[in-house]
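Lecture 7 notes. Example A: sequence first, then its structure tokens.
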Amino acid sequence: IIMAKEEWAKKLYWASVKYRILSIDGMSAMVEVENISDIPFIVRKSANEKITLPAKKIIRTKFTAPGTVTIENIYIGHKQNLVLDLPTE
């Protein structure tokens, strides 16, 4: 679990995780996600779906485009998780 000011939490996440869009089909995108850090990140993609980005691994997954995700193991306030907009390019 990470606790930080929002600006630092965003910098940490974007320095650790790289997204590469492989294809877009309507409102969803197949994305390759690389976590170059030693920290696994728990990403809530929707109300019913979350994934773990394992440390030092690459995974492929679908995301709704455009969209936001919640990083469940990064807190920026009391019971407030980091929420990020996904890259569109």
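Example B, a different protein, same format:
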Amino acid sequence: VTIIVNEIICGPPDIFLPNAFTPNSDNANDVLKLRGNNIIPEDFVFRIFDRWGNLMFETFDPSDGWDGSYKGTPCDPGVFVYYFEALCIDNETYSEKGNITLIK
């Protein structure tokens, strides 16, 4: 069995973003959020796009996450594109883009 985890090292602790989430109101994996420490909140951006490139979610606050909706309407299951950029306390800027799967 092979498990792939997207992980970016950001100083001693790392930034982690799961590759799937289930916003189905069961209180488990309902919100997609970056996890990590040592992020400077003033220099952070996290965006989610649909497959046509439409911006579905954007935050500049590392504590915010995407609930799988767009303008209050739940999105259909599918694959979305994420992008994040974070400045960490080691004065390095880290960025990554990839895919996120919304499962219901």
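Note on Example B: The chain has a mean pLDDT of 85. The longest strand covers residues 39-49.
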